[in-house]
Fold:
Amino acid sequence: MEAGKDVLGALARELHEEIGIEVRQARPLIRVRYDYPDRSVLLDVWRVDSFSGEPRGCEGQPVVWCGVDELSERDFPAANRPIIAAAQLPECYLITPSPDDVEEFLVKLEQALAQGIRLVQLRAKRMAAEEYKALARQVVARCHAHGARVLLNGEPEWVTEVGADGVQLSSGRLHSLNQRPLGEELLVAASCHSREELQQALKLAADFALLSPIQWTRSHPDTEPLGWDEMRRLVDEMPIPVYALCGVSRDDLDQAFAAGGQGIAAIRSLWPV
Structure:
């Protein structure tokens, strides 16, 4: 960055010089601090949603368009792994309410998927294991038909059993583990409430984390929220995507992005009425 220039200005200048485009609309995606053997870098990554011009290698470098899902198959430096994860994750992460009626639950899930939800955590704490897995198989089938991924809030070994895409680790399970519970081809997410839990998520090589409570909620009236400023401080130390959780909705997406977050995770505000 040149003296007196902001990050967006530096981004616009570099993209114009490197690939000949003019940035029209962009937002923060993720900041990654990474230590190589010979240097330390801070990658301030933005997502460009609108631009003018035709991208080309202005300095003779090759330019290739590829789908976001193909990025994992490309050869990138180690520091790029969290950037690819952030590019592949949506901005809204639906956590399901516990189902009272399975058929009604599945109808609501279909509505959420039709409205664009592409990442779902199946949370049904009151269900017995076999009942939960039976529901999970139905949820996975519906989500995959819409191109959405499903994480289980349960035992990691259930993931392959029901064909899900990963596991959401509760804070209790997070502390009970000393290594990543699933292979790199599956997602591992962690529920965190503090710097210590975020650091534990990093030790387990989690793909992303949830941070809560960000704002006050009626369900936890006596819990002091972290707030957006504290989220910004904590997320700035984290080289993985982090979703804001508790008291948030789509109306808070810009706040979440400004705080360095991947987006928002929610039950009520993302579940169809």
The chain has a mean pLDDT of 94.
